[in-house]
Automatic annotation (TrEMBL):
NCBIfam families: sixA (TIGR00249). CDD domains: HP_PGM_like (cd07067). It holds the Pfam family His_Phos_1. This is Phosphohistidine phosphatase. InterPro entries: His_Pase_superF_clade-1 (IPR013078), His_PPase_superfam (IPR029033), PGM_Phosphatase (IPR050275), SixA (IPR004449). It comes from the Bacteria. Keywords: Hydrolase. Signal peptide: none annotated. Its EC number is 3.1.3.-. It comes from Endozoicomonas lisbonensis. One of its GO terms (molecular function) is hydrolase activity.
C-alpha cells in the first residue's frame, strides 16, 4: 500500500480558534499544485483532520482525484503519532491530510520506528510512503512533494 502524508495548505491566522483557520488563496493554489503531482499514485481514499484548513485541503484533493474524504478526529496537530497510526486505514493507497508537528512525527514513526527526527513539512508538502501495513518502522519514504 501507499500512504501519502500531506500537510494542509497555507492558512490564515485570522480566525476565532486554531481549528477554524481557513486556507488562504495562496494555500488553495499550493494544495492544487501538490495534489496534481499525486495523480499518478493511485489514491483511492482520503482521510483528514477535522480542522477547517485540513478539510479544505482534502476537499481540493477530492475534487482533483475524484476520491471521497473521511474525517479522523485523532490526527490534529497535538495528537499522538502512535495513536494516529491505529486510526489509519490498513489497505489501499491513502492520502492523509493533517498538520505539523504530527505529519513529521508520523512519518518518522512509520519509517524509522521513532516519533521524532522526521522530515520538515512546509505547507502543502507531502511524503509518499510505501508499506505493507501502517506500523512503526515498516514504511519506506519514496519521495517528498512538491519536487
Amino acid at each position: 500500500m501507499k500512504l501519502i502524508i500531506m500537510r494542509h495548505g497555507q492558512a490564515s491566522w485570522s480566525a476565532p480558534s486554531d481549528s477554524l483557520r481557513p486556507l488562504t488563496g495562496a494555500g488553495r493554489q499550493e494544495v492544487r499544485q501538490t495534489v496534481e503531482q499525486l495523480q499518478g499514485e493511485g489514491i483511492n481514499r482520503i482521510v483528514a483532520s477535522p480542522y477547517l484548513r485540513a478539510q479544505q485541503t482534502a476537499d481540493i484533493a477530492s475534487e482533483v482525484l475524484g476520491v471521497t474524504v473521511d474525517t479522523i478526529n485523532g490526527i490534529t496537530p497535538d495528537d499522538s503519532p502512535v495513536d494516529a497510526i491505529e486510526q489509519l486505514p490498513e489497505e489501499g493507497n491513502v492520502l492523509v491530510v493533517s498538520h505539523m508537528p504530527l505529519v513529521s512525527a508520523l512519518t518518522a514513526l512509520l519509517c524509522d520506528g521513532v516519533p521524532f527526527g522526521g522530515p520538515g513539512f512546509g505547507t502543502a508538502n507531502a511524503a509518499v510512503l510505501s508499506l505493507e501495513i501502517p506500523a512503526a518502522g515498516l514504511a519506506s519514504l519514496q519521495k517528498m512533494l512538491p519536487v
